[in-house]
Specification:
- The complex is a heterodimer of chains A (258) and B (296).
- Chain A has nine helices and no strands.
- Chain A is an all-alpha fold.
- Chain A has one domain (17-251).
- The longest helix of chain A has 54 residues, at 160-213.
- The model of chain A is unreliable at 1-11 (pLDDT under 50).
- In chain B, helix 4 (109-118) packs antiparallel against helix 5 (132-145).
- The N and C termini of chain B lie far apart (47 Å).
- Chain B is of the alpha/beta class.
- Chain B is globular and about 65 Å long.
- Chain B has a six-stranded mixed β-sheet, sandwiched between helices. Chain B has a four-stranded antiparallel β-sheet with strand order 11-12-10-13.
- The A-B interface holds A 2-7, 9, 11-14, 16, 19, 22, 25-26, 29-30, 32-33, 96-97, 99-100, 102-110, 252-253, 255-256, 258 and B 1-4, 6, 26, 29, 48, 51-55, 62, 64-65, 70-73, 75-82, 84-92, 95, 98-100, 102-106, 148-149.
Chain lengths: 258, 296
């Protein structure tokens, strides 16, 4: 029968790590969507908030009232959008680059690991960026007008490093939930995503039914109270990890189709 | 002759559709192969199987001695340019050429720049705003400048004008001469590339119909031209592939002739003309079309 040539190229074979890093570079080849655009939107929302804080505070003179208003500002959900946005970034990034990466002879394994590393890096960048903004917010007593966006109550009331950890964990959660949704979409298209959302809805419904019928809402609340703010966030790592691993296996058999 | 890639009993079924059906063949090193066939014949699926983008239903694929699926050490030597290649929507061509050197170790940036110039590709225009031809030229440039030891071009010319297509053929041939590599070119513009091809595969409805050197395939049929009665006398009981008549003249295509037959034809005052690759492929794969026409 025919002989098979094991032609070895004289050049160095890129190692496994280098191949994964190349996929990270691919995601940042055009940094606009994953890096620049989210910051532009975040800063835009911040500026609008700043204007609103200034207008409101211009009408409040009593120091006690001002403290009340600042307390009220801490319930701002303005910076929560960034998490949902990151989920969309993850879905977009994978959907857009998967076919291209395979066209560049990248294996699904290297592509997924590189994408996962990209999402961890982005989580870190945004967590640190928001921690810096939170520090400035505290140091300037709310940008000089008692505003609160990056120290909002939803990020916990602990020290800066707890808030940093919380934002990082939340970013990871949304990125990897987005990643698993993206792999489902890449492999099974819209039908797959619809089935996934339907399943998640059913699971949530089953959980609610279970807790309600066993009259356990009290214990659920207690669990959150005892686990604490950061503790609950740490538990999200379990879901992030499950999503991350599931995404890997879903993508391993995905094929790029128009 | 060294085999670079081979398929054995390879099949890919999508439900009831047999996109690739029990195909066995080998690709030889440093040769330009033509993969010819009609739309939907299974050309793209076959190439997707060879590059690990699709998973086979049955049979095996070996590229550089191993299965290409999820095999980085095989794929690093493979470049697959397809007409339907998607690029990230928010990209410009410059982002493509920024990333290609990361994935193709033989990437020649200078050659790429020269090609970008020759194809007049606007590097800074958003991908979404490029014309079909400009989009195709990105693929052509990547395929040529990547210098992968095994390069697949799946109908890479869509939307390219005649000048750009000729440029592609010229550059491919010149660069292939300088940097020999194995090329598979799938196309249905057969006449345009027939001088490039050294080996021809014809696939139809998932099945491999022809696996032959281009020369053997061309000499597998000859057209005999001359006075109608002389031609008919010469042709006799041979299988006639094609027949044209005009007044007292006839042009009949018959299966390949040996040297003695050629001499006999010349002695009878008949002219022998080669049959183009395109005519042959149309003849080989046109049966289904004819049946359709008859029943309609």
């Amino acid at each position: 029968m025919t002989a098979i040539a094991l032609t070895q190229s004289p050049t160095r074979t890129p190692g496994a790590l280098q191949r994964v890093v190349n996929v990270v570079k691919l995601h940042f080849a055009n940094p606009y969507t994953v890096l620049i655009n989210p910051w532009i939107i975040l800063i835009g929302i911040f500026l609008v908030n700043l204007a609103i804080w200034a207008i409101i505070m211009s009408q409040v003179t009593d120091p006690a009232d001002r403290a009340d208003v600042t307390e009220g500002f801490s319930y701002s959900g303005s910076s929560l959008f960034i998490f949902v946005y990151m989920m969309i970034v993850a879905i977009q990034a994978m959907n857009q680059t998967f076919s291209f990466a395979l066209g560049m002879s990248v294996t699904r394994r290297d592509y997924y690991l590189g994408s996962a590393l990209t999402f961890v890096l982005l989580s870190a960048v945004f967590a640190v960026g928001m921690a810096v903004l939170a520090a400035i917010e505290e140091a300037t007593s709310g940008w000089g007008v008692g505003g609160r966006m990056f120290t909002s109550i939803y990020f916990g009331d602990g020290p800066w490093f707890e808030r940093l950890a919380f934002v990082f964990l939340a970013m990871l959660f949304f990125f990897f939930v987005g990643a698993v949704a993206a792999t489902v979409f890449v492999r099974w298209k819209a039908l797959g995503l619809t089935v996934l959302l339907g399943l998640l809805g059913l699971i949530t419904l089953a959980f609610v039914a279970l807790v309600t019928f066993t009259r356990s809402w009290g214990s659920v609340g207690e669990w959150f109270a005892t686990t604490g703010f950061l503790g609950s966030a740490l538990w999200s790592l379990v879901i992030s990890a499950v999503a991350g691993v599931a995404g890997f296996f879903i993508l391993r058999r995905a094929t790029p189709r128009g | 002759m060294t085999t670079i890639a081979e398929a054995t009993g390879l099949s890919k079924h999508f439900g009831a559709v047999r996109a690739v059906d029990d195909v066995t063949f080998a690709l030889e090193e440093d040769r330009i192969h033509g993969l010819l066939g009609r739309n939907g014949a299974g050309k793209s699926t076959l190439m997707q199987l060879l590059t690990g983008q699709e998973f086979a239903t049955s049979g095996s694929v070996r590229v550089f001695g191993a299965s290409p699926a999820e095999n980085a050490s095989v794929l690093r030597n493979v470049c697959f340019i397809k007409e339907s290649q998607r690029y990230p929507d928010d990209w410009k061509p410059k982002h493509v050429f920024r990333s290609t050197p990361w994935f193709f170790e033989h990437w020649d940036a200078e050659f790429a720049e020269q090609l970008i110039d020759e194809f007049r590709l606007p590097l800074g225009r958003p991908i979404k705003k490029l014309s079909r031809g400009q989009l195709s030229s990105i693929g052509v440039i990547v395929g040529l400048a990547s210098r992968a030891p095994l390069t697949f071009f799946d109908e890479p010319y869509l939307g390219l004008d005649a000048v750009a297509r000729q440029l592609f053929y010229d550059r491919l041939l010149a660069d292939y001469a300088e940097h020999p590599r194995t090329v598979v070119l799938s196309t249905h513009l057969i006449d345009e590339v027939s001088n490039l091809l050294e080996h021809v595969f014809v696939i139809d409805q998932g099945r491999l119909l022809v696996d032959s050197s281009a020369e053997d395939l061309r000499s597998s049929a000859t057209t005999v031209v001359g006075k109608a009665n002389t031609v008919d006398e010469f042709v006799g009981g041979r299988e006639v592939l094609h027949r044209d008549a005009l007044g007292g003249l006839a042009s009949v295509t018959v299966a390949g002739l040996d040297d003695a037959e050629r001499r006999a034809a010349a002695a009878a005052g008949l002219e022998l003309a080669p049959v183009s690759l395109q005519q042959l492929v149309v003849r080989i794969t046109g049966t289904a079309q004819k049946e359709f026409e008859v029943s309609a």
